[in-house]
Amino acid sequence: MPIRMLASEVSSQIAAGEVVERPASVVKELLENSLDAGANNISISITDAGRTLIEVADDGDGIPAAELELAASRHATSKLILSEDLFHISTLGFRGEALASIGSVSHFTIISRVNSAKEGARLKVNGGLSGKVEKAGAPVGTLVRVENLFYNVPARLKFLKTDVTERRAIDAMVTRYALAYPTVRFKVTDGRQSTLQTAGDGDRRAILAALYGVDVAKQMLEVMAQEEGLSLTGFISPTSLTRSNRKEITFFVNGRWVQEISLTSALLQAYHTLLMVGRYPLTALFLEIAPEDVDVNVHPTKAQVRFRSQDKVFSFVQRSARKALLAYTPVPSVSPQLWGTRSVPSQPREIGIDWSIGHDEQSSVGSDQVSVNSDQSEIPFRQDVGNPSFAGVPLLRLIGQIGSTYLVAEGPDGLYLIDQHAAHERVLFERLMAQHEMKKIPSQSLLSPEVVALSPQSAKMLTEQLPFLNHFGFEVEEFGANTFQVRAIPVLFSGGDPASALRALVEDFEEDETPLQAEMEAKLAARICKRLAVKGGQALTSNEQRSLLNDLEACQSPRTCPHGRPTMIHLSVDMLERQFGRKGAR
Length: 586
Prior knowledge:
Elements: H1 8-19, H2 23-36, E1 41-47, E2 53-58, H3 68-71, H4 98-104, E3 107-113, E4 120-126, E5 129-130, E6 134-136, E7 141-147, H5 154-158, H6 163-180, E8 185-190, E9 193-197, H7 204-212, H8 214-219, E10 221-227, E11 230-236, E12 242-243, E13 249-253, E14 256-258, H9 261-270, E15 280-281, E16 283-288, E17 294-295, E18 306-307, H10 310-328, E19 397-402, E20 406-411, E21 414-419, H11 420-437, E22 443-453, H12 456-464, H13 466-471, E23 475-478, E24 483-490, H14 498-506, H15 521-532, H16 542-553, E25 568-572, H17 573-579
Parallel strand pairs: 1-8, 13-16
Antiparallel strand pairs: 1-2, 2-7, 3-4, 3-7, 4-5, 4-6, 8-9, 10-11, 11-16, 12-15, 13-14, 17-18, 19-20, 20-21, 21-25, 22-24, 23-24
Helix pairs in contact: 1-4, 2-6, 6-7, 6-12, 9-10, 11-15, 11-16, 12-14, 14-15
């Protein structure tokens, strides 16, 4: 095939594919331009998750009318002059490709006015074809409208995800920049609803409260460290506040949001041995470093960076985060009473659940506990334990509890070690699904409704799930922007934390996963049960231990939790005899 020059519209769309991957990419590029222009107020409006309309307005410096057409051209920028400037970049944008790339795949309109001009100017670009600059009345600053994104690249539209996912990506991106630039007022509107609004008063903790709720904001630990040209500020979560994925780990380098593996690794190293496997912290950290010591020109989206002294930066981030953790988090101590003969913990219980099925000297302990297992008739105890075809567990005799996490029991064929958290997950799950199949899930109204604040992206996901929650015995209603009020929960979960149940529905989903509304009900029910089950490390009374074993024996699938993790380990008598040398080694 002969070699030929690409048409200008083709090369423009190729360049756009590197910069504009989805609506969130458009918002990011326009937002960064507004910040570079010194804006104090930035307003973002979207329609149909950005497919139909994205509008970004700011009160920055603006663009002179004579330069407006040039600003929409490829490789036109005011931030670089010489190639050497690439190694001293102090602005968010510098390539001069964003506006041209966006204009090549949309109906693009830009209106801008500088402070010295009496009137503004307007320019329209349709599919890369630029019109004439016209006069227009406008305040100081710039307004950009991006309509019908990817209208001329239908293949790209097919690769976009659902509206919920695309809106979540936009909210997550704006949220990060709101934390990085607390002195700038951000407002995001989705249709007629405002999903994010910050005061711009410089208080990052107040922004955290608006995004994640007051309780989360109060718990966050502040990081402030400086060392040899490096500065790290921001917030990290204590070890008691975690998520099941890394989506809430946010790093900014010189005001630029980056996804740098080395920084994430350094942070996780600071939490080494302090977090459970599969749990990750919430963080918003801002690293300041000399521009010549970091290369941001390594990826089209500028989301990755390279440091001149990688090991130095890694060590600095790790030590700074670890120091903050140790300064705020006391070293846990083991109560000596756990090693005594008493089976009742002297400290308050983490979850007020009364599992008791009998009455003895310990049944009166914890009178403030709320029984959630009072309805034992819905799933009867096993009546067919003698049936060899029953794939369950034999009747077990309780021996005790180890490490406040595992139960030890004796069966006719050996020793059983039971994970109390996984076992309780299974019990709760089967009871909830049994009630679901009978279409009878009793609810219990809360004496005082609980208000739960979520991040904008999580709030949108939960809104989609309100019918599901109401069907499963919850009574949840919207209570303001990104805020929900829990008025009732299933009787099965009485005494549990409603906020944990709500967050369990939204925090485990990665960006490319199937939306919540398409998930199986059983999977979502399993997530709620996991969050509300008794935790490892919680000491149980003898009655509670015995009740858990009885309930587990009554389950249809007692050997695994709803997520497939084993609930028990079996040590046969034959294996024990071999280990003790009674039958000789094989």
